Amino acid sequence: MSKTQVFFGDQNGCDSAAVILRRGGLVAFPTETVYGLGGDARCDRAVARIFDAKGRPSFNPLIAHVADADTAWTLAHPTEAARTLAARFWPGALTMVLPMRDDAGVSPLVTAGGDSLALRVPAHDTARRLLRAFGGPLAAPSANPSGRISPTVAAHVLDGLDGRIDGVVDDGACAVGVESTIVDLRATPRLLRAGGIPAEALAEALGAPLAVGGDDATPVAPGQLSSHYAPRGRVRLNATSAQKGEVMLGFGDVPGDLTLSAGGDLTEAAATLFARLHDLDAMGADRIAVAPIPDHGLGLAINDRLRRAAAPR
Ligand code: TXA
Ligand code: MG
User: Fold this and answer.
1) What is the whole-number distance in angstroms between the Cα of residue 143 and the centre of ligand 1?
2) At residue 221, does pLDDT exceed 70?
3) What are the residues whose beta carbons fall under 8 Å from the beta carbon of 28, sequence distance 6 or more?
């Protein structure tokens, strides 16, 4: 493949990117969570190329991104809880797994052959501009090689995928910084992945706590393989100081060579997490110690990503 083209996030840039997408090409684009690697969700060839570019196992399904909830309901059947959450959190960092409609027209590669579809309406202006210019659903996993750190700036995308994808729409840094929260709404609402919308906020909107994780009937999001979001170095969690040879990633009162948030702010920590992991790679850190992060709100998503970064490979 030829060199990856870089577009601005303005109307011109999005129109040019949409032309590539309509031809079955792949274009990475910013969302408020992380950069996604977009391809036409209705086109087998485009979706197959997404898996190929990322080196992603084909049993791991993709999220379909759409411009609004009405479009989402043309692809999947909303439950009452889904309508409630859509009204409150879309556009935003929430992905809902729902029964796919028979006439959805989505490539079976998107759902890995299953009959449920993961749907998200992103809030980022540029993502919305691109979705409107394209005029259909975009399958978009995070725009990183499978198993590596998710990209929160266009340079991360190019680091991992330059030459493997047709384009990237560059619109600066992602404000949320961790991926969307994934909820399975086919039965009792179940949290499949902690993410940019705190589980507590979803529970409050639903008036009931979410079930968590997989059971026999509902395996967790298959993409949640244990080693993931991995920097090159070995990661040690809940460290209050660095041991010899470690680079320290601090938080709040625990200082470090780098910090997620000196003020102990979880929103800032989520927004900077992946950039700091990329920085640690760039520094050549081969042993990394990470300060404790409180396990509530966005801290749940941060700790989930850190545990995967620390998992044995
Ligand atoms: O914030 C995000 O969600 C970003 C941006 C680009 O939207 N996307 C993202 O995609 O994180 P990805 O592919 O890295 O993660 C999608 C997750 C995977 O763990 C996958 O297994 C799960 O969603 N998933 C997709 N379809 C599913 C389905 N039908 N049932 C259960 N899990 C599903
Ligand atoms: Mg990912």
Assistant:
1) 12
2) no
3) 35, 36, 37, 38, 143, 151, 154, 157, 161, 165, 167, 168, 169
If you measure from the C-alpha of residue 244 to the centroid of ligand 2, how many angstroms do you get, rounded to a whole number?
32
Please state at what angle helix 11-22 crosses helix 125-134, rounded to 10 degrees: 50
Q: Is 172 exposed, middle or buried (0-12, 13-18, 19+ CB in 10 A)?
A: exposed
* Nearest atom within ligand 1 for CA of residue 114: 29
* Alpha helices (H) in 23-173, listed in sequence order: 44-54, 69-72, 80-89, 125-134, 154-161
Amino acid 219: pLDDT: 43
pLDDT in tens, 25-72: 999 999 999 999 999 999 999 999 999 999 998 889 999 999 999 999
Kindly give the distance from the C-alpha atom of residue 118 to the centroid of ligand 1, in angstroms, as a whole number.
Answer: 7
3-state secondary structure of 150: coil
- Would the pTM of this model clear 0.85, i.e. be above it? yes
pLDDT class of 215 with cuts at 50, 70, 90: very low
Are the C-beta atoms of residues 217 and 119 closer than 8 Å to each other? Answer: no
Whole-number Å distance, alpha carbon 36 to ligand 2 midpoint, is 9
Whose CA is closest to 305, among 198, 221, 194, 222? 194
Over residues 120-175, the pLDDT tens digits come to: 999 999 999 999 999 999 999 999 999 899 999 999 999 999 999 999 999 999 99
| Nearest residue by C-alpha to atom 7 in ligand 1 | 36
Pocket-testing residue among 51, 54, 59, 62, ligand 1, by greatest number of atoms within 8 A of Cβ: 62
Q: Which-ligand-closest: CA of 224?
A: 1
Structure tokens given for 305: 């990503």
Q: Which two tokens stand for residue 232?
A: 């090159």
